[in-house]
Amino acid sequence: MVRTATLAAATASLLLSNTVHAEGLYTKNSAVLQITGLDYDRVIAKSNYTSIVEFYAPWCGHCRNLKPAFESAAKSLAGIAKVAAINCDDEMNKPFCGQMGVQGFPTLKIVRPGKKPGKPSVEDYQGQRTAKAIVDTVKDKIPNTVKRITDKNLNEWLAEDNETAKAILFSDKGLTSATLRTLAIDFAGLIPIAQIRNKETEAMKMFGVQKVPTLILLPGGAKDAITYDGEMKKEGMVEFLSQITPPNPDCPPEKVKKPKSKSKKDEKKASASQKSADASSTAASTKGETVEEAVKPVVSPDPEINDDEAPKPVIIPEEETKPKIPLVAELAELQLSCLNAKSKTCILAILPKDESSEAAASALSSLASIHKKHDARAGHLFPFVGVPASNPLASSLVAELKLGNEDEVHLIATNGKRSWWKKYSGQGFGSLEVEQWVDAIRMGEGKKERLPDSLLAEEAKVEVKEEKVADQEPFKIEIEEILDDEETKEPETHHEHGEL
Length: 500
Ligand SMILES: *[C@@H]1O[C@H](CO)[C@@H](O)[C@H](O)[C@H]1NC(C)=O
Ligand SMILES: *[C@@H]1O[C@H](CO)[C@@H](O)[C@H](O)[C@H]1NC(C)=O
Prior knowledge:
- By secondary structure, this protein is α/β, with parallel strands linked by helices.
- It has helices spanning 7-16, 40-45, 61-76, 94-99, 131-141, 154-159, 178-186, 201-206, 234-241, 264-279, 281-284, 331-337, 358-376, 392-400, 431-442, 461-467, 469-472, 475-488, and strands at residues 33-35, 51-56, 82-87, 107-112, 121-124, 147-149, 166-171, 193-197, 214-218, 226-227, 345-350, 384-387, 410-415, 420-423, 449-450.
- The strands form 3 sheets. It has a 5-stranded mixed β-sheet. It has a 5-stranded mixed β-sheet with strand order 6-8-7-9-10.
- A hairpin with an 8-residue loop joins strand 4 (107-112) and strand 5 (121-124).
- Helix 3 packs across helix 5 and helix 13 packs across helix 15 (431-442).
- The chain is elongated.
- The two termini are 29 Å apart.
- Bound molecules: 2-acetamido-2-deoxy-beta-D-glucopyranose (2 copies).
- One 2-acetamido-2-deoxy-beta-D-glucopyranose (NAG) binds next to loops.
């Protein structure tokens, strides 16, 4: 018997599961550039800028924990590097995240231009997940094409291409800042940029530089040098150098679909405005497809993958607003929902006789709150089921899987279809710890044990044998299996949508 399941809740989940685009973690106004698998090649891989890309799922606890640091890193790196995020829970991004070898959430990758255009070098970011660590690491990765000039080689450098513009930053620093390195990338092939230390007294004298930092522009030919008098910030410096020539676009322009008006003039206008948007990564970051959180699901611009109707919030009766997970006391009921040869992933909390024990209460409430969180985000999650000691399968599970003491709570994940199970072995049943374990299961991480057939309902055993091959497949298949499970999963017995 399922004690807390309600029809209303099941209906709510059906409506919500129609969302094609899962709601992203970042809001429309976030400094984090929200990209899709389709944008990646143009916006990141083909960019002259260095990027850090977060692969995430909105339901993942670590991703939510990372969010403030990532937002703050994006603000610090505005105009210097791209800070982007891709929602791997979104149907349209799933294949791409698989291709990128994403094995857990969040995964952070640093992508920077390689030797061949469009063939970037990609590496996992393994550092601390703080804004400072992210900013420092990304800045370090920005290529340096700024020429270091001393009194000795100044004249030689000035004589090279002396008819076209050059720029010099006078500085007391021995290192080249990320801002100057990015400025050099912006004007690569247009305005060569050099850095001269203030100890190079002849150079300082030649240009009458009194203080550092000072940026000067040599327009070329016999024209006088111009001194920049604005703030030493990227934006102002770009504007200053733009009096000679506009900067390179950091990435190729978006292919503009033929506008409805057939006029050539309009097309030109559209591509020109696109170019200028791409030229600045700050501008680019406002272009993501994601909308404000908890407002409305994103509607795809492609009618083919667009669902008929956006899900509507469903009003749940009062008594259902406290999160609970179903307790399944009958053997057949549990076999039907989770322990048969066709059943997909389930999380089972096997309870001791004393259902009111602290551990039992804690495990049940953690599971309920995790599930509630997913539901509120219209994420799909496998069923969570409480198995009271009165269910004969409780003691069979404890014995056959050698879980240990029957007086304790045991948390396991099972998948009848693929004949595996996993045990939770964390400290206590706090929701953070349990959620990490659940996230790992979603990503197919960790070792799986063989689920004995004796624990599964008799019928359809043949099919289990056929399916077993899949367990030997490499990880990529596994990710698909999990994603696949999410798509085809039946609505859960428990749902609650108070947050919508
Ligand atoms: C540029 O270089 C050429 C050849 O070295 C020289 O003749 C010319 O005077 C230079 N022009 C300036 C403005 O320094
Ligand atoms: C990137 O830099 C090169 C110069 O190194 C420049 O020609 C190009 O326009 C820049 N932008 C793109 C999108 O390649």
